[in-house]
Amino acid sequence: MRQGFFDKFMSRLDRIDAPVASAHIAELARERGFLETLFQSIDEGLIVVGAGARLLYANRAAERMVGFSFEERQGKSLARHLRDWGLDALLCAQIGDWSRIETRVAEVSYPEHRFISFYARPLPFDGRTELMLMLRDVTREHAAEEDALADERLAAVRTLAAGVAHEIGNPLNALTIHLQLLGRGLRDVPDLALRESLQSLAETAERETSRLDGILRRFLAAIRPAKPTLVRGNVRDVLDATLRLLSPDIEQRRINLQTAFPEAIPDVFLDAQQLEQVFFNLLRNAMEAVPDGGRIGVTLTVDDAWVNVSVLDNGVGIPTEALGRIFDPYVTTKAKGNGLGLMIVRRIVQAHGGGIDCASRPGEGTCFTVRLPRAERRVRTLPAAKGKAATP
Ligand code: ADP
Ligand code: MG
Prior knowledge:
This protein is α+β, with helices and mostly antiparallel strands. It is built from eleven helices and twelve strands. The protein is elongated, with a radius of gyration of 32 Å. 18% of the residues are buried. The structure holds adenosine-5'-diphosphate and magnesium ion. Adenosine-5'-diphosphate binds at residues 281, 285-286, 289, 313, 315-318, 326, 331-334, 337-342, 366.
């Protein structure tokens, strides 16, 4: 209908006198204002580009999502700013190809890291083809997908570990038994020198198999998705136990360890053994990141819902582009690392209803923060029912 009005107006323009024309123009301006308000108030981003990917229009949502100012960019090409979006190819596409162009997801790193899903539509206009892009911020959906993917990967690693246990564990048992039998049989060798040398060889073999058995056992204990047995307890006690365990190493390397614990720490529901693994892994990583004489801090803070434990160091830090992957299995930068530590840490923390964050600056240091829900506020960690807020 609005288009009809405009067409009629244009076709009669030369026959319309000035006052009528200005009334019509005022009407058009009102309509334009109406559309502008409409475009500016939607959550979806809207961008229109012309030939050479030159920016013709962008609403505020789009400015926010991709981090540019329409005023500054108007008339300039977006091809570089939105490099991976393939705007040039879209602009060149034949009209017939349009049915094949699907929604795409682009990753933007400025002004913050987001995932933007967009679809493009040609706007045939005055003989030229302009391109309209509709943008939607799908960062949250993406994060949920990534979590699901991480769970899947974790499940794959577990299956692998169970397989390894079966495959290595059985022959290892047989080997141990046969080495013991061999040791017994060697007692009957009459030649003393030969007997002693063979016994020493057998002992070495036995020692090494039992070491292998130990490694396998520890590996499996770490990887097995043991459900935590949660009991009410104090995080501080677990931290103290972990620090005691590591103190000989800390002292030997003259690491400057500073702790800050508040007087009163509310209880959380915890599995002490598993949580000790969490702190042990985080502290080990910190120790491996700092030079001898480096600094490590452990702080405990409390807020309404959480008990937070931070482990910070002034070590090598983690490059920004690697931050997203450190919790993945087998991601390691160490010659002797296995890249499983942080994966296990996250799994245990999540099983406690908590979360873990990492902030790092290469060359300056790293801070891991573990959040554990306070015992008396546990209900908060339950997912809210659809359309209903969680009751605190
Ligand atoms: P691993 O210690 O066996 O390498 P992790 O899962 O514990 O495996 O850690 C994965 C990677 O994350 C490490 O190889 C390291 O690159 C990085 N990382 C973890 N903690 C820190 C830290 N405190 N400082 C610097 N890098 C770290
Ligand atoms: Mg580690």
